[in-house]
Please model this.
Amino acid sequence: MAGAGMKAGAGMADISPTVFPAPVNGSMSGNFAKGITDPMHARSLAVAGEGGGEVIFCVVDACMIPLEVCEAVKDVVVAKTGVKREGLLISATHTHSAATMAAVFQSDPDPEYVKALPPRIAAAMIAAHENLEEAEVGWGFASDPTQVFNRRWFVKEGQAYENPFGVLTDQAKMNPGNVSKGVSVPTGPVDQDVAILAARSKVDGRPLGLLANYSLHYVGGLPAISADYFGVFCGLMTEKLGAADGRNAGKPAFVAALSNGTSGNINNINYGVPALSLRRKADPGSRIREVAESVAKAALEAWESVVWKAHSEVVSEEADLQLVVRNPTADEVDQARKWLVEFPKDATGNYRDKKAVYANESVKLADYPDTMPVKLQMHRIGDLTVGAIPCEVFVEIGLELKKTTPATRHFTISLANGYNGYLPTEEHHALGGYETWRARSSYLEVEAASKILAALKGMW
Model:
């Protein structure tokens, strides 16, 4: 009802696999986890605005989530809550140690696990809606430049490397190695913002929920199922905000979620300095904790800067953009089939030569349609805008949206409402490099970033 003020609620559900070994995304090979280091969750924050609009954010511990799964989740949530579809945002954290949901490279999901996912993910979103209570909501921004580095570097003049298609003209190289003699400087900037959307009870001031956003690809290194630093961050924020000490006793639990920003070309390794210490290599969990602590410290600073409001509108808009697929030509498919014979699978059933890995992708892409739908969303909560793109979005795109928002501040959630691969800008496509190589992880037309930016700006 208009004038009734804002409401917020949070919910969480365990979505870990129960059958092992479980296929895991995040590698060019088909890898399997034998157990769980820490569980996978779906974490939700619902915010209802003055005037009746409601958005339910759901951040899922997954590498990527296919559109079909997201749509099936939304079917359940709409039927149970009545919230409009454009107000439902489901995103993947991009942990590289989660059970596979989308078939990419040589990792195929367990169909029974995927079939069981929609009601499990929906449970977190439904709980957030059912837990709505009178609330104050606000946003805050802080900075953590210590954990983000551009992972694409310019190849030095006179240097070259062969990409998986036999081409030697790529001018950018991903993850070139520390202090590499073959590269010069990073090809672009980073986004050091730690953004939060926060909610607290209007009645007793206890924290209800937190949606954070940081543009870091992932940390990684754990061999079993894990939520990576995203999950550790959520536990730390629960502790730092005093939400684990009984303040929520008898009431819905506080839930923190960390969404992935525009990190398509950003990771956690500074290739301009010598390699990481042996201690970190021997204990990857310590690196995850270190990064989570650093980002949580900034998120707490952002929380302390929030201007709390009990009366703000919540408005959501959604659009499906049809974009051209970079399908291989008939000649390219023929060449791919020859490479699959020349570089066969090994004893584990995986292609190891990169030419074969990408040849396999070309053969599979040949069956893709000429165009694919790309679901975009723009949400406004008071004077904050939040965009959603179903891609591994390059940082330049997120920075452009932050610069041009008509609101006071903005952040973008990547890997949201489906998965359409990497989203490099046209300039980065011209440079080449891993993120541009045609595969199920990178197949949208070269002009996709410009078209997506234009569509999102049209929703302001």
Q: What stands out?
A: Residues 7-147+188-315 form one domain.
